[in-house]
Specification:
The chain contains four helices and three strands; from the N terminus they run H-E-H-H-E-E-H. It is globular. Helices cover about 60% and strands about 15% of the residues. Strands 1-3-2 form a three-stranded antiparallel beta sheet. The chain is an alpha+beta fold and about 80 residues long.
Length: about 80
């Protein structure tokens, strides 16, 4: 049990990068957002911008979680 807790802690502390599919699930839950919706919200500043790595877009999980927390605090 302690090992699982330690692994979870390490995962949350690392700045994991996720692809568009994961971002759609992150914001949409059981009904993932359409990728076009995510990119539209990025362009209007409602979602964090991706990092370009080798021509691919990846989002920082830390930034996504921070944005979600900011929204929850604002309501």
């Amino acid at each position: 049990m302690q090992q699982a807790t330690s692994q979870l802690s390490n995962t949350l502390n690392s700045d994991q990068l996720v692809d568009i599919k994961e971002v759609c699930r992150f914001w949409g839950g059981n009904r993932p957002l359409n990728p076009a919706t995510v990119y539209r919200k990025v362009s209007t500043g409602q979602h964090p911008k991706p990092v370009k790595i080798g021509g691919l877009s990846r989002w920082s999980m830390v930034e996504l979680c921070a944005e979600r927390q900011r929204r929850m605090d604002a309501r």
